[in-house]
Amino acid sequence: MADNEGNVAAVSLVDVEDEELREALAVLAGSDPDQCSYQQGYMKRQAVFACNTCRTEGMEPTGVCLACANHCHDGHDIFELYTKRNFCCDCGNKNFGTFECKLSPKKDSQNTKNVYNHNYFGRYCSCDRPYPDEDDQVGEEMIQCIICEDWYHLKHLGCAAVDSEELLEMVCESCMNKAPFLWTYAAYFATPPVTSKENEDVTTPNVEKETSSYPCRDGGHAEPSTSQGCIKNPTLPNGDRTESQKRTREEMERHSSACQSEAALCKLKNLKTKGLVRPRVGSVFWPYCWRSKLCTCTDCKRAYVEAGVQFLLDESDTVLAYENKGKSLLREDLLTSCFSSLDRVQQLEIIYQFNDMKDELNAFLRDLADQGKEVTPEAIHAFFEELQAKKRRRSSAGQYNCS
């Protein structure tokens, strides 16, 4: 029993190491290892490194791309910063003094749009400690905030770490407070969900305020609605209205209707009226689909820009999207290198066999659908066993075909 347990533990350890290796390869594969990324400007996301060897006292923070880390700073003490968004390679600019980039020497003196933090000096988390930390005997796990992209120890998140099998994204408390409207979304969509509501004495006035007045496209507000429309128009002594007054009333009603429709379309305002709240303390964990819940109305988009988080609406911004791109490139490189090592006859044979398998698989799936059967792992396993058997029968039959 002890041996079996030991074997399971060993296998689990190998699996973990392989997964970490795959993630590391995916991060590196998404960036070019030989061409400096400077010519591509501020890239949406790339692997970034900081050179401790080139850093001098009082030097401004700098980062370099994968290619420069490989070629210009080979053998240096390098901090691996994982990935950064909207970053342009600094290698060889004025912050490096007389050091020149070997791959792209003609660069601006400074990349003014780059955003830096203490990671570029090899320090992380709210505790401002290095990683790996010689004083940390445990080697505690760290997690990255998707907004500021700093890395935090689990014990410094200000909340209990969420143990979940599904992929989660984390926003630190500081970033939540820089974009405070995220707290409203967190009450409904973050993990774990909040089930308590605000005190009715608090929520009712807010709801009344939001339903009695609507934002207009010109930035103003429509007058509170009455039983006779947005603004009550005076009437003639006999109770009739002039044509001008009728037009004014119609225009105001259309205006009021448009304003109400715009307010109704705002997901954030609708959530606020429901009264669900979350304590504004600690980091927040989100299920991976949470970004799709964010409102995209004009006012909310403006709020994202003001808070500097407009990238939350970009599906390709996520680290997962970047890693998937890297994994795809890895598969393409592997297939290309394997395929190119074969001669022309072998390449054609593989193509024919692949097309045959694709046709048979499609026919197999159609049969299951026609019979109303589910696609189970057992059915797929049986399909490939039969496919192998057919291949063996064709191979055996071919041995007796003499020309």
Automatic annotation (TrEMBL):
One of its GO terms (cellular component) is cytoplasm. Residues 34-106 form the UBR-type domain. GO terms for molecular function: ubiquitin protein ligase activity; zinc ion binding. A zinc finger (UBR-type) spans 34-106. InterPro entries: UBR7, UBR7-like_UBR-box, Znf_FYVE_PHD, Znf_RING/FYVE/PHD, Znf_UBR. Keywords: Metal-binding, Zinc, Zinc-finger. Residues 196-255 are annotated as: Disordered. Pfam families: zf-UBR. Residues 240-255 have a biased composition (Basic and acidic residues). SUPFAM superfamilies: FYVE/PHD zinc finger. The keyword Zinc applies. SMART domains: ZnF_UBR1. This is Ubiquitin protein ligase E3 component n-recognin 7. It comes from Astyanax mexicanus.
